[in-house]
């Protein structure tokens, strides 16, 4: 399939194939609300050939049942959705997460990059109410939006082999939390004792997409 765009929920989406049984709707300029209202709009069509709809930061993946249809017919069905928009109910929560900023691993680098003092960085980091935009790149990892632009820090050129669970980091224009111990390249600003992922619970995540987060130093 050559490059194709469709209009859906008032937004223009680039359509890409993800193998034989999935497509990706992508719009790097769209917002959190547009991603999730568009996901709800597609879901409301009750299209029997769709197995799963997965919203991400700037895209929506749609997995189809190849026993019923193919990706091209699904794209046509999406183009034929006439409803302009849809309202969705919100069950979001606000979480206050305690952070020990003395356990930050990259203070020297963060201070050098931002040109701010440690106390100024902590003040700016705790002053904002964040929104959970996406979960990934490993179970429970939380990507948070709306970070103060003065705190922008590029990811580390040489990622660490081990970052502890609960590490709070800055990666580019976002801040995030490592729910599990893992390798990683974000600049670590502090540490929380909050348990954000427990595979024995249903659901396993403490935070969910759309939730609000306030850091407490």
Give a quick summary of the entry.
This protein has 217 residues and is of the alpha+beta class.
Overall 3D shape: elongated
| CATH superfamily membership of the largest domain | Cyclophilin-like
Q: Mind summarizing the main beta sheet?
A: 7 strands, mixed
Residues in β-strands, percent: 25-35%
Class of the largest domain in CATH? Mainly Beta
State the CATH topology of the largest domain: Cyclophilin
What would your notes on this structure say?
This protein has 217 residues and is an alpha+beta fold. The protein has two domains: 4-79, 2-Layer Sandwich (Gyrase A, domain 2); 94-216, Cyclophilin (Beta Barrel). Helices cover 18% and strands 32% of the residues. It is built from four helices and 14 strands. It has helices at 32-44, 71-79, 107-114, 118-127, and strands spanning 4-8, 11-17, 22-26, 50-55, 59-64, 94-98, 130-135, 142-145, 160-163, 167-171, 174-177, 182-184, 187-191, 212-216. The strands form three sheets. A seven-stranded mixed β-sheet has the order 6-14-7-8-11-10-13. Strands 1-2-3-5-4 form a five-stranded antiparallel β-sheet, covered by helices on one side. It has a two-stranded antiparallel ribbon with strand order 9-12. Strand 10 (167-171) and strand 11 (174-177) form a beta hairpin. The model has no long low-confidence stretch (mean pLDDT 87).
């Amino acid at each position: 399939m050559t490059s194709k765009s469709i209009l859906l929920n008032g937004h223009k989406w680039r359509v890409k194939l993800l193998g034989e049984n999935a497509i990706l709707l992508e719009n790097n300029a769209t917002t959190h609300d547009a991603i999730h209202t568009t996901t709800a709009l597609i879901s409301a069509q009750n299209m029997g050939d769709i197995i799963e709809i997965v919203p991400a930061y700037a895209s929506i993946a749609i997995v189809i049942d190849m026993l019923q249809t193919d990706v091209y017919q699904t794209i046509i069905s999406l183009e034929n959705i006439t409803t302009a928009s849809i309202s969705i109910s919100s069950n979001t929560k606000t979480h206050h997460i305690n952070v020990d900023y003395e356990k930050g691993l990259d203070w020297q680098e963060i201070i050098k990059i931002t040109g701010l003092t440690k106390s100024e960085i902590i003040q700016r980091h705790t002053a904002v109410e964040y929104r959970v935009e996406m979960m990934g790149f490993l179970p429970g990892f939380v990507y948070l939006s709306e970070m103060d632009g003065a705190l922008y820090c590029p990811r580390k050129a040489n990622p660490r082999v081990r970052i502890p669970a609960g590490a709070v980091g800055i990666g580019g224009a976002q801040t995030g939390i490592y729910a599990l111990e893992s390798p990683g390249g974000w600049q670590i600003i502090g540490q929380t004792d909050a348990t954000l992922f427990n595979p024995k619970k249903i659901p396993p995540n403490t935070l969910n997409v759309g939730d609000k987060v306030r850091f407490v130093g």
